[in-house]
Structures are given as structure tokens and as C-alpha cells.
Amino acid sequence: MDAMGVVRDQYGQFRGQTMAQTFGQIKVYTNVVVAPTLPNRDWPERGGPGTRMPVGALTLAGIERAARDRLPPEIWDFIEGGSGAERTLAANRKMFERYALRPRTMVDVSACATGMNLLGGQLELPLGIAPMAYHRLVDPEGETATARAAGKAGALLVAGMFASRTLEEIAAAATGPLWLQLYWLRQRAALAALVERAEAAGFHALMLTVDAPRIGRRLRDLRNGFAIPPAIRAVNLDPALMAASHRATDGGSGIADHAREQFDPTLSWSDLAWLRERTRLPLVLKGILTAEDARLAVEHGVDAVLVSNHGGRQLDGALPALAALPDVVEAVPAELPVLFDGGVRTGADIAVALALGARAALVGRPALWGLATEGEAGVHRVLDLLREELEHTMALLGRPRLADLDRGVLAPWPTA
Ligand SMILES: Cc1cc2nc3c(=O)[nH]c(=O)nc-3n(C[C@H](O)[C@H](O)[C@H](O)COP(=O)(O)O)c2cc1C
After folding, report:
1. Domain for residue 407, yes or no?
2. 254-303 tens-digit pLDDT
3. Is residue 52 located within the same domain as residue 79?
4. Is 128 part of a structural domain of the chain?
5. How far apart, in whole angstroms, are the C-alpha atoms of residue 361 and residue 339?
6. pLDDT digits (tens, 9 = 90+) for 93-132
7. Is there a single domain that holds both residue 111 and residue 35?
8. What's the CA-to-centroid distance between 130 and ligand 1, angstroms?
9. Is 1 among the domain residues?
10. Do both 26 and 77 map to the same domain?
């Protein structure tokens, strides 16, 4: 307890305040505990609200709980929320439960190899961080901390167009493969300028998000009247172009208003030529869920596709991402990388996505949970847990190489 009566735990976290009042000769102490330590089975010895050191977290679910305890409710809702009734959001996770794993025995698994090459970049595991706007919402450093963690873990980072650190800062912090995500803006000049800057800064590929001609109805943000706080900005774009995202309106969301104002809903296949003319970088399309679109993507010469429903944040009722994956894989030539995101929370989930034909899996929310709890170290912890779990799954499956993860790994989960 310090002179002001403030009580902190051994990690310096605020735990409450003791107030002293004097009535004549009697001094009365009142304990006002505002941040009780809640039991958290993942790290019972340290933890609880406000803790920035979830030492010993054994699962991403544990890190998720720590992040939720830490973040203001409207930021938490912005991150966790989906669109509409959040059916697609929930189904992304549920789909993984449909699969059982078929372990083979008596296979030498003394060395499990998870390294791979993706569009010319070397990864230590088939994993990336999906593009997400405004990492500084959860950590003062933001994307540069995420980039360092991804580099250390040997994972891909896809920086968002609405990153809260400059492309140049992110590129300077990155030591591994780094891609930039783009939305199709009405202001093509802004898009062209970003592409040029990304190339100059050393980004390795562009990922165009094609599932957002308009933004999904994210009811949590609408209810909260959510807007991006003024101190946190999409610094790679002109402030005038981003102004709407900072305006809170009653019953509205700054994010939705901004998208309505700035996203170009006329985007169609023929527009890809415009982008191609402006860059030598490989082009990846994000948000493909059908064989029809996968075939069109191939016809238009894209370098990879990402099967994704935007983490359940766009069309509610859209196919769960894992359900869409086999159709897309079947529709494209074997050499075209098919990436996957949506609901990946364990190393076993990565193994399932790979067994269904994905070349690599991306995680969205978990990276922000890590960043919110421990900054760079937290993101690294998330990626490292996934690597450890993937390697463990491969060993116990009797599949020591990524190429061994094929359909033979999977069986339908038996229903009672
Ligand atoms: C907070 C947040 C912000 C996001 N921002 C973007 C974005 O700017 N561009 C984009 O293409 N996808 C964005 N996404 C979607 C992710 O790239 C990804 O598709 C999704 O989060 C994957 O699902 P998961 O969170 O279940 O892993 C965002 C997702 C979240 C949770």
C-alpha cells in the first residue's frame, strides 16, 4: 500500500484502495477493492483482471480470457463481434468439431517438420496473422510489436490497410514475410499510392479483400455507437478519407459509416487488371467461398486465394469457412496456394485445414488477444502455442511432414 492507500499486487497492477477516515480519536480504514482477482484456471498462480503477464497460459482460450478482462467492453465487442445474429461466426468454430483425427502408429516422428515456402517467402510453420485494422486499439505499439512477434515465430504477417502504424515502420520491424491487405476504395489514387509505398517499403505481396463491397451489419458496434478513438488512426491514409470512422453517431457505427462513404461497391473482376498494372507484387484474393469464384480468380491470374468469411463479420449466414474450403481447393490447380482463415484456435485446427487442402492457415482475433495481454511477447506466445500444438498433433497423428496431412487424416466425428 502506498501513501495514497493504493494497493498493488506483486506485478504492480492496481488492486484497490484503502481509505482512512478519522472520527474524533478513531481512525477507520475502508478497503475498496475495485479489481478482484478472479480464478483463472489457465494461470491460477498469477492473473486476473488487469494482469499483463498471463505466464503459463496453456491455450489460446486462456489468453482470450485475459484479453477480455483487460479491454474496454466496446473495444472487446469490436474485436470479438460478428455480423447479424453471429451465426457464421459461431459456425466457423463449430465446423472443426465435425472432424475426428485418424492417428497412425509406429511411424518415426522424432522430427516433425513444419517449415514451408509461401509465394517465395520462407515460413517456419504454415501460419499467418490475418489482416486486422488498428492494432493500437489494444496496445500502444500496435503493428510493429505484431510484426516483430511474427518474425520471431517465423509466421506470415498480413498488415491491414487500416494499420495504425506506417507501412515503413511495420516493414522495418518485420523480419519475415510481410503482405499488405487492401480494400477497394472509391479514391483510386489513394489505393495506387499505398501500393507504390508498400512495394518501396519491401512488402512481399498484396491481398485484396473482395468480400466487403459494404460492411456487415455488426450489431454490437451499432449498439455501442462504436467509433475509432481519435488518438488511434489509420496513419497510412489521408485523415480526411478516414474522418467518418472516428465519428460516433447514435445507433450508428463509425466503421459502418466510413465503409459506406469510402468502399467502392462497383469492384468487379475486370478491375484486377488496374491493380496488376501498378505492381509487380503477387496478388492474393481474400474472401473466396465458392468454387465459381475460385475458378474466376484462377482465370484472372491471381497468385493465391484466401478462403475466408471475414471471421463471420460480413455476410451472416455465409458458409462456415471450413465448409467452403474443400470446394475451393478442388476448383483450383494444385499448385495455386489456397489459404484459410476463420475460427482457427489450436494447432489441431491448423492440421485439419491443411488436411482439407489449405497450404497455410491464418488467425485473426487470437493475435489481438496476445497483443492486448502482453504486447509483442503475447503475440509470440499465441503463435508459439499454435506451433507447439501443431507439431504435437503431427507427432501423435504419425504424420511428421506437412505433406502427410491429407484427407486420410480425417474422419467425420461419429454422432451418437
Ligand atoms: C478486429 C478485426 C479487424 C479486422 N480487420 C480487417 C481488415 O481491416 N481487413 C480484412 O480484410 N479483414 C479484417 N478482419 C478479418 C480478418 O482478416 C480475418 O478474416 C478473421 O479475423 C479470421 O477469423 P478469426 O478471427 O476467427 O481467426 C478483421 C477481423 C477482426 C477481428
Report:
1. yes
2. 998 999 999 999 999 999 999 999 999 999 999 999 999 999 999 999 99
3. no
4. yes
5. 6
6. 999 999 999 999 999 999 999 999 999 999 999 999 999 9
7. no
8. 6
9. no
10. no
412 CA distance to ligand 1 centroid (A)? 28
Q: How big is the CA angle at 90 (ends 385 and 390), to the nearest 5 degrees?
A: 20
Q: Which of 2-16, 49-63, 334-348 is modeled with the greatest confidence?
A: 334-348
Same domain, 152 and 25: no
Q: What is the pTM of this model?
A: 0.89
Percent of the chain with pLDDT over 90: 83
CATH code where residue 366 lies: 3.20.20.70
Query: Does residue 127 sit in the same domain as residue 210?
Result: yes
The residue whose CA has the least distance to atom 6 of ligand 1 is 132
* Ligand 1 centroid to residue 227 C-alpha, Å: 17
Query: With contact defined as beta carbons under 8 Å apart, do 316 and 84 qualify?
Result: yes
Question: 82 CB less than 6 Å from ligand 1?
Answer: no
Q: Which residue has the cell 486486422?
A: 132
* Ligand 1: centre distance to CA 362 (Å): 10
Active-site entry in 204, 246, 258, 310? 310
Say if CB 289 and CB 210 are below 8 A apart: no
**For 163-190, what is each residue's pLDDT tens digit?**
999 999 999 999 999 999 999 999 999 9
**Cα–Cα nearest to 384, from 158, 151, 163, 170:** 151
21 and 154 co-located in one domain: no
Local structure of residue 185 (DSSP, 8 states): B
Q: What is the pLDDT of residue 56?
A: 64
Assess whether the C-beta atom of 209 lies below 6 angstroms from ligand 1.
yes
How many domains does the chain contain in total?
A: 2
Residue 246 annotated among the catalytic residues of the structure: no
Average confidence score pLDDT of the chain? 90
- Say whether 216 sits in a helix, a strand or coil: coil
Q: Looking at the structure, tell me whether residues 181 and 88 fall in a common domain.
A: yes
Predicted local confidence at residue 35, as pLDDT: 44
Residues 25, 160, single domain; the answer is no
Among 218, 310, 339, 349, residue to substitute to test ligand 1 (most atoms within 8 Å of Cβ):
310
The ligand 1 atom at the shortest distance from the C-alpha of residue 80 is 31
Is the minimum distance from the CB of 364 to ligand 1 under 6 angstroms? yes
CA-based nearest residue to 362, from 204, 198, 217, 160:
160
Domain membership of residue 63 (yes or no) is no
* Amino acid, res. 326: P
> Is the beta carbon of 365 within 6 A of some atom in ligand 1?
yes
- Where in the sequence is the domain holding 16, given as residue range(s)? 6-57
